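--- STAGE predict ---
source: upstream dedup step, 1 unique chain passed
mode: sequence only
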Amino acid sequence: MTGGHGQRFVFVSHSGADTWVARQIAREIAACGATPFLDEAHIDVGADFEDDILAFLERADELVVLVTPWALERPYVWAELGAAWGRRIPIVGLLHGLSAAELQSRPGVPILLKKRDLLPLNEIDVYLGQLRGRVGGASGAAQEGRYERAEGLYLLLARRC
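--- STAGE serialize ---
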């Protein structure tokens, strides 16, 4: 489900403590030609916060979650992950401040996050390159959701285009 006129919507989930980093991620997503949603930038003061978040999650083509020790403690991050999981849209986890092994060993982290291909934030260019392909209309094998081996990780090239 891509927005009108081939527009691709990317919901950026993060904790309040990670707002500055989330803004940089949203800026890079926009530079790829997609439309990012960042709560602090897109929800007016006094607006119904939950309704605005749900409205964009209903339109989102994918969710990027900034996984930090602080984000793991925030109920809204978990709610946003659950909404994306329920819609079966791709969920991309960007790790910052903890490793994949640390996340995997943490009690209480649902399998819906643990089973994802998680990228360290320093490898965000891998995701951004794939996003550019989806925005530009990736074709053939990428549309079939094939995987490619990259730096020791199996990265989803395109689950939904």
